[in-house]
Amino acid sequence: MQQQTHQLANSLSRRSILRLLAGFIVTMSLDGCVQSASSSSATPTPRPAGTVLSLYRGHKLRVTAVAWAPDGMYIASGSLDKTVQIWAANPSDHFHPFIYRGHDAGVNALDWSPDSRRVVSGASDKTVQIWDALTGEHVTICRGHTDSVMTVAWSHDGKYIASGSADGTVRLWDAATGAQRYVYRGHTGSVNSVCWSPDSQRLVSGSSDKTVQILDATTGKHIFTYRGHTSTISSVSWSPDGTRIASGSWDKTVQVWNAATGKVVYIYDGYNVKAAQTNDTAGVLPDLVFVVAWSHNGKRIAAVTQVYCGDNCGVVVVWDADTERNVTFYIDTPVFALAWSPDDTRFVSSTDVTTQGTGPNASESDPEAGSYAQITQA
């Protein structure tokens, strides 16, 4: 599957690829899962939103997943090149990147343990792997999924890991032993996103079956199904206070709703592009939504979408989580994953700079071409 995805990337537009891979989303939603942490690194001088602060160029193929360590010191990035790479969030630290090579296929998802010591990664090889973030020492490999692992999330209490797969299941694993606790089979399509409630008592999952489902994390029993979307759910994110859930979809909306009742608080569907060009508070009209991520302080929501400026153009939109007022947006090259820094001042995202050429050596004609992870001002 990885080889086919790479071949498609060389021959088709981004929009075409994403529409063809309706059941196989490489934009992972773990980036939207909130982790309670504070950054130990110095807060940079504020710059305009979207300003690129640093680039990481270690991967050979598209970067599909990114996650910021809860202690703020390191970033993990996963790629179709089968690796997960750990690198310093502050480039001046000169930390030599650690490269984890435990997977046999492209990495689709990853997350940090709450103590920032371990990483869990999920891949197209159908495995969930837990390992030491700085030494790469295997802790355990979790086997059970029968198709690509699309999303993983570590519980806030550190005890469990949830994973979702193209096989339509959500599985819960013991983080210490890798033992499978239960299998949830409530979805009828690929599970593209899972996220924990802040108290680690509930799980929310989003699927290609157009539903968002909440289950009891202890028992795996179904609690509630949200049916507000009309297309694939790509990303879910639980508010830090536990009261609301934001879900992003290919129906071009982000819907914010009450986690207990399912009552819609509001539906964010963007604003007019032409108006945004003259007034940056007006926002933009989104296309397919790929990532939705609640800030750690609960004040803002970020979404990754497309904008009507061509197949190879993406946009990051940020708005006030309570009022829906658009805060800012910036247009970038295609963005495939995004996560807030623990102090909510920066984003880490993956981006793909392509050239007009095709084939494996196309990037040689353009020194700026390639797949990067980058840190930008939030």
Structure description:
- This protein has 378 residues and is mainly beta.
- Helices cover 6% and strands 43% of the residues.
- The strands form seven sheets. The protein has a four-stranded antiparallel beta sheet, with no helix packed on it.
- A hairpin with a 5-residue loop joins strand 24 and strand 25.
- The two termini are 34 Å apart.
Q: How would you concisely characterize the structure shown here?
A:
This protein has 378 residues and is mostly beta strands. It is 6% helix and 43% strand.
Give a topology summary.
Elements (H helix, E strand, L loop, with lengths): L1 H10 L2 H7 L31 E5 L6 E6 L5 E6 L4 E5 L9 E3 L6 E6 L5 E6 L3 E6 L5 E6 L5 E6 L5 E6 L4 E5 L5 E5 L6 E6 L5 E6 L4 E5 L5 E5 L6 E6 L5 E6 L4 E5 L5 E5 L4 H6 L10 E6 L5 E7 L7 E7 L5 E7 L2 E6 L5 E8 L16 E8 L1
Antiparallel strand pairs: 1-28, 2-3, 3-4, 4-5, 6-7, 7-8, 8-9, 10-11, 11-12, 12-13, 14-15, 15-16, 16-17, 18-19, 19-20, 20-21, 22-23, 23-24, 24-25, 26-27, 27-28
